[in-house]
Amino acid sequence: MSGSHENEPIRGLPGFLPEGERILWQGSPHWPTLARTALHLNKVAAYFVILLAWRLLSLATDDVPASHALLGALWPLPLAFITLGLIALFAWLIARTTVYTLTNRRVVMRIGVALSVTMNFPLRVIAAADLSTYANGTGNIPIRLGSDDRIAYLHLWPHARPWRFSRAEPMLRAIPNAAHVAELLASALADCHAARPVANIASAAPAPLPSNPLTSPSA
């Protein structure tokens, strides 16, 4: 692991590539998808909608004038906007500071918002990989490691397969054109393992994303 990427010789990589190694793909998470699927932006928004509706209903049943009831019910709105804005900003920062790299020899994950680290996963230690996609073409590729080395779930989050705490699995999360990246990874694994069937990349049925896509914060 390396602690800073300010002086990276190649974006997303801690050093120059050795002779014979080449980059097959580089990418970063799609931040609106990351906000919805990893940071649960829509669930938080739904919570505030329910809270507003409950406040409005409770005030209406107390024979409060409609104008007063409306004003009384809207007090959570500033908190809702601040909370949702912070979640969206955090997702944007994660995407901005994350670089996933696939080479013909390894998978590299440069992750971390406040403290950046680079994790290398040689293809020879990858036992299998899976694929799940969303309706907009983005998706996740969790990686199962065949070695006995273990990584703490919190060290990886949100770049980890959900609910795999005891044996955390690194995951390329919310990446655009995930199916194509999965094909590249499967091909690289097959070449690395001399065509042995160690890669099991299974495409899941597309899961619909919520409507009203977010827009990136302006610089």
UniProtKB/TrEMBL annotation:
Instruction: List where the protein spans the membrane.
Output: 44-61, 73-95, 107-127
Alphabetical UniProt keywords: Membrane, Transmembrane, Transmembrane helix
Every copy of the YdbS-like PH domain together lies at 96-184
Which Pfam families does this chain map to?
bPH_2
Q: Which InterPro entries match?
A: puhB_PGC (IPR054839), YdbS-like_PH (IPR005182)
This chain's protein is named YdbS-like PH domain-containing protein
Source organism of the structure? Rhodocyclus tenuis
